[in-house]
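Good morning C.,

I know you're traveling, so I'll keep this short. The sequence:
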Amino acid sequence: MSGESLQTPLVSTSMEPMRAILILALLAGCGGSDGDGPPDAEPDATPVALDCPTYCGQIQANCTGTNAQYPDMANCMATCGTFTVGTSMVTDTSGNTLGCRVYHSGAPAKTAPAMHCPHAGPAGDQLTATPQGGCSGGDACASFCALEIKACGSVDAPLPGNPRDSTNNPIFQYQNMANCMSVCAGYDKTHVYSTTSAGNSLACRLRHATTAAISVANAMTECPYTGMPPTGPCTGTPTP
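The tokens, ready to paste straight into the viewer:
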């Protein structure tokens, strides 16, 4: 009996370290008591930012060739400054906002550029006779006029210094936002917007307004093409 009593604690003592090891292994497999997860877990993806660098980086990468919305990063960044941020989010699928354009210029534009790049572009939609519901808010003139007034000023609020074009005329083309919207309603909206748009259409005027927004020097050359009556490259039959 004395031999048995000596063996029992020896077996018990030898099992305790093994039990401890098993418990620690189970805790590690479950992420430990602090709930951090496995040590080799992948980090969360970086959230998409609601800002112009994110938007322009996406649209320049995903909308190229015939689907391109801006000739270069400078045009995009200058135009982006006129988009409403407000309470928009990067998951918005409609509404004339930066958030809506960030959404459409990302994965949707990458997988279906012909459909989503126009939504993400300066017009916020395909330019058609029937109002659309992408990122234009139902009227692409709102996108154009916001950009136009920022880039070229207006009669009511000219740009600082009231710059003039090569013929010494003020570069503003409209009395104010309301006047721009009224005149724009009569522009041809049946021709798609592109970085090569020409002829008497909203698409051509929008194209030149994006370039005008880059600098006052650009505005002095480009703003005259954005008004009514049509001038320069925005005269004649619209293309494409």
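Safe travels,
E.
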